[in-house]
Amino acid sequence: MSETKNNEELQQEETTEEVVETAETTETEEIAVDEKDQKIAELEAKLAEEDARYLRLRADYDNLARRTRLDREAAEKYRAQSLLTELLPVLDNLDRALQIEVTTEEAASLYKGVQMVYDQLLAATEKEGLSIIPAEGESFDPNFHQAVMQEQDSEKETGIILRELQKGYQLKDRVLRPSMVSVNE
């Protein structure tokens, strides 16, 4: 019986060792699974962060491309702006020369020559998109007109431009110089 008892004790010890080994293995496997889950979570967070970074970079690139395209279009549209701005005093002087009353035949032929030069210059600038801002008789608009005087005319409404003192010009939709005007009170 003692041998049977010993065998039983040995079997119990072996069973206990197996249970302990199984528990340790299960615990080790659980730790390994927890570490794997943690590692997966870390990698997923890193992937999400990289995706967000990529999307931000892509949006920045798209914005830069759009801005560059708009700048290029504006540069093309207003390429003649500096030249036309420099020519405005020339147009003013020619316009003033045409305001003079002609009394002699020599002056009339000189006047005609100045008129031809003025018309050609005006036509060339209009091809580039320059246009005269209408003023006299129009309603005052601070976007296009600069009021330098106020006068009173009871026959006209308040805010109507009575006189244009200096012509205003715009290039396409951009004002190069507002018209200097006198406005009705």
TrEMBL record:
Pfam families registered for this protein in UniProt: GrpE (PF01025)
PROSITE patterns linked: GRPE (PS01071)
Any single GO BP term: protein folding
Alphabetical list of InterPro entries matching this protein: GrpE, GrpE_CC, GrpE_head
UniProt keyword list: Chaperone, Cytoplasm, Stress response
Bias (Acidic residues): 10-32
CDD domains xrefs: GrpE (cd00446)
GO cellular component: cytoplasm
Annotated compartments: Cytoplasm
GO MF term set: adenyl-nucleotide exchange factor activity; protein homodimerization activity; protein-folding chaperone binding; unfolded protein binding
Region (Disordered): 1-32
Assembly and binders: Homodimer.
Family affiliation: Belongs to the GrpE family.
Free-text function comment from the UniProt entry: Participates actively in the response to hyperosmotic and heat shock by preventing the aggregation of stress-denatured proteins, in association with DnaK and GrpE. It is the nucleotide exchange factor for DnaK and may function as a thermosensor. Unfolded proteins bind initially to DnaJ; upon interaction with the DnaJ-bound protein, DnaK hydrolyzes its bound ATP, resulting in the formation of a stable complex. GrpE releases ADP from DnaK; ATP binding to DnaK triggers the release of the substrate protein, thus completing the reaction cycle.
UniProt name for this protein: Protein GrpE
Organism whose genome encodes this protein: Solibacillus silvestris (strain StLB046)
Upper lineage: Bacteria, Bacillati, Bacillota, Bacilli, Bacillales
